Model the fold of this input.
Amino acid sequence: MSKIETESKRNQESKIAVEHLRMEYTSNNKNFLALEDINLNIEEGQFVCIIGPSGCGKSTLLSVLEGLYTPTGGDVRINGIPVDGPGRERAVVFQHYSLFPWLTAKKNVSFSIAQVNKNIKKTRADEISVEYLKKVGLEDFIEKLPGELSGGMQQRVAIARALAVSPEILLMDEPFGAVDAKTRVVLQELLLNLWESDGRRMTVVFVTHDIDEALLLSDRIIFMGPKHIRCDIPVAFPRPREKSELYATEEYAKLRVELVNMFYDDIADKIDIEGGWL
Amino acid sequence: MKKYLLTLPNLLFVVLLGVVIWPYSELAKIDYYTKNPSKLHEPTVFLVVLVLIHIYYLVQSRRNNKYRVANDIATVVYLLLLAWELVTMKFNIVSRIYIYFPPPENIFYVFFSDYKEILTGLVYSMRLLVIGFTLGIFLGVVLGLVVGWIPRLRKAVFPIAKAVSSVPALVYTPYVVMLMPSFIFASIFVIFLGVFWPTFMNMINRVGTIDHKIIDTAKVLNTPLHTTLFRVILPYTLPRIINNLTVMISVAIMTLTAAEMLGSNSGIGYFIRKYSVMIDYTRTIAGILFIALVVTVLNWLVDLLKKKLVRWDY
Ligand SMILES: Nc1ncnc2c1ncn2[C@@H]1O[C@H](COP(=O)(O)OP(=O)(O)O)[C@@H](O)[C@H]1O
Ligand SMILES: [Mg+2]
Done:
């Protein structure tokens, strides 16, 4: 294939392309099939939420996209290039605060900047770091260690750290799953504002088991069942979204009921499967 | 103000001073065996030490939430010193075995009369200690980091390291001292081994069982291997390393003094051996107290280092 053909193929390809993905864990000589024949295309600039009961393989799918696990079958391509480990076009926010506890908020963010930009001066990295910490509302906590910050604040730092490297793709695995309900609402709005106000529009893959969160944030909801994708639901509410306005619309209520019913069908079907719901 | 004056340690301190200044027993003046006058020293140095201890107590007890602990510790120390003083000098109860139980006046006097020999010994010992200790910690940490990181290497090396490190360095000290061309080499080497094996093993263990979230985070941040090792895993293990330094210092002092007792001609361990062979237990005990003091100061330095380097906890 000539260079031009490769280019054009890249151009027509989705930002993220997953074909016949299969993921089998091997531990203690036992195999466990976590994902079977997953097919998924995510377009550039899309905000996609993955939703589904716990244990169905959401984190596994995301780990494959992060490049932490090598799939045991199928293809995963980003920008048309097969995924081979983590890459600098992707940034990740985990559920559990994954900050380095020995670095201050500022240094946590500049550490990440220094990894993708090897030649950057320390002072410059710190400047960018402070700029992003301001964006997430932490200007007064720049020199604090993660241990001195609340869970919600730590997650803000994690978001700043992810955004500071200007990623094309943001991968988030239940990022607000461990914070209290009030903080969660604040963080959802923060993320939504940051994403909507950014002219570049990152591609976001966001795992959650909160239906309202998915409806508020996403352009599209991927509903997963055990090991597979059950359905793919477009969420066409206009942007920028305002929570109170959105909740008042009829479309929202309709879609929400549909999704909730799907969740409960699932429980009725697979009542014997372990794990909690919602 | 009254509350501060009327403490048990203040009371005991005054009593102790009085007892020390009080003329001592007639019996203590005569050596039980030789019937010659005993070599009893003026209590000046002991009194100076007491005053220093009390100043330290006063400073510590003024600090927030240290008040009770400082009181308790000072009380125990003063009671012990008081008992020692009474039993030896004042009532002469242990006079028959006087040479085994020298009075505190004589022992603290050694720090004045023999200070040159003690300081020379200290410098000599510290040189060996610092070299062996630093090498042991440094290589233990770096090699432990690398070996711990590679699962195959870790699984092969860990059982061996565990077996070797469970043998106290003291056991092979005589052999190493005999084997090595000079005593200096030998003692540096045994200190090194004594510190290296536990550090190395601890490090392998810690790196092998590192929280995988930390590693995953480093991976998704596109951190290259050497940065992961030295800027992620190393700081992650640092609190543990520093906590272990206290134990390692004891191990190093133990091996060093043991080595010095075998074949040195200077050093604080040598000082103790020389005088215990000469049945001069006054100087022997002074040497032992001095080692306790040195270890205390070293541990205090470790604490300072910890406060400076580790602002975070697990
Ligand atoms: N490292 C692993 N080794 C073996 N099994 C795993 C591993 N990680 C996850 N699993 C299993 O794979 C299934 C899917 O897990 P996960 O992707 O974490 O689900 P979710 O994120 O949807 O809750 C679960 O049954 C889980 O027990
Ligand atoms: Mg999960």
About this structure: The two ends of chain A are 48 Å apart (CA to CA). Chain A has nine helices and ten strands.
